Amino acid sequence: MDAHKGWNLQQSYTELPDAFYTKTTPSEVENPELVLYNEGLAEKLGLPTKLDPDIFGGNAVPEGSEPIAQAYAGHQFGHLTMLGDGRAVLLGEQITPEDERFDIQLKGSGRTPFSRGGDGRATLGPMLREYIISEAMHGLGIPTNRSLAVATTGEYVQREDLLPGAVLTRAASSHLRIGTFQYAAGLQDHEQLKALADYAIERHAPDLLHSENPYLSFFEKVIDRQASLIAQWQLVGFIHGVMNTDNMTISGETIDYGPCAFMDTYNPKTVFSSIDRQGRYAYMNQPPIGAWNLARFAETLLPLFHGNQEAAVEMAQEAHAKYEESYHAYWLKGMRAKLGMVTAEEQDQPLIEDLLEMMEKNEADYTNTFRALTLGSPNETSLYGKPAFTNWYKQWQARLERQETSDNEVQVLMKKSNPSIIPRNHRVEEALEAAVEEGDFSVVKQLLSVLEDPYAYTEEQEAYTELPDSGDQPYRTFCGT
Ligand code: AMP
Ligand code: MG
Fold this sequence. Notes:
The chain is α+β, with helices and mostly antiparallel strands and 481 residues long.
């Protein structure tokens, strides 16, 4: 089998004008060692189960690779900056046996022309963290880039302390970001902007190429994808942490896992990132920040929407206005499924909101509350015994009786819609500590294995539903390390 497998790389990005990328190569490292390799993903990509660790450490490039660093800009916490791949190298696009195209990118592979003051390097803990969380998101069925491999470099990287270096290899539908369009708009050259938009449409929505106004239709498509994506984040309690415009894709995949985490206790104000002091990217702000970022995207596309600026702005506003409605529809549909509802009633939303409000007031665990409802064990929620909850539970049961579903059908739907487990922060930390401090990767691998199908409700997963000892809150995550 493996004999037919291997690199099948193309580099379509270099067909764009030169301003969009710089040719570069990964920097050599002392002693690359492959510590994680995603065999399931390798299979999907058409890669063999064993590959040269030199490639994943950056000491060799695969056959057919034309490595580049991509140029992009981005609003970081509201301020527009020129960025670009400062510590990432795009090796090329792997064409899979199913004829799909995936960017293969190294992260932490040394300096590039976009590194500014940075060293271009990454450390082991955060790269393992990104691997775990992105693969967990994939297991949850949420669009995301994937993690193919982590290689340690045999070198130390200077942060606050000296930390072991590592390189992460990621696979993504593309790395086109809102920030890529902001960069293109900044070039103030209509042809270059058009080239980027045409490329993006061809790659991510080829069916729109012949529509009446492909650019406007494409904008609507990206709005819909992001509305759906962010609704899915909210439904599982995922907090991205840095929703800067350079971290928001055109494909609708989650990318750039920095200081992200899953919420334990339900609190809409939850923020994990140590750099997000104002709570700009708190859980409850993610949907409106999505809208803000999409407005920045629209601004870049105006000259393509219409030759007359006023007309273009009107078109953009009309399209942009659909985001909120679209987000809300995805969210409500998802919440109904989480509560086993297959029909739609006027009173569903207030019923959902009542539950969330009770959870917030009583500091209930988000995932475990839905898990207990799914398993028909309301006594296992921390809300049990509260009169308001007893009343709510009765209303919910009555609501389910008004639809023609058996208890079993309801439970099947709820199991598909409520993960039994999420990568809880204390479990992620425990796994990273074993790997980084003791070179023991078995804890990471075990965690990855139970997260492969979070909706499986296996016995093995039960231990992972346990909450951290109180005392390690508030949890903090760090990025850019
Ligand atoms: P991120 O927080 O990963 O989205 O990164 C934001 C920007 O900072 C991107 O342009 C990165 O390439 C760049 N960057 C982050 N860390 C480093 C580093 N250690 N060296 C060089 N550039 C970096
Ligand atoms: Mg980024």
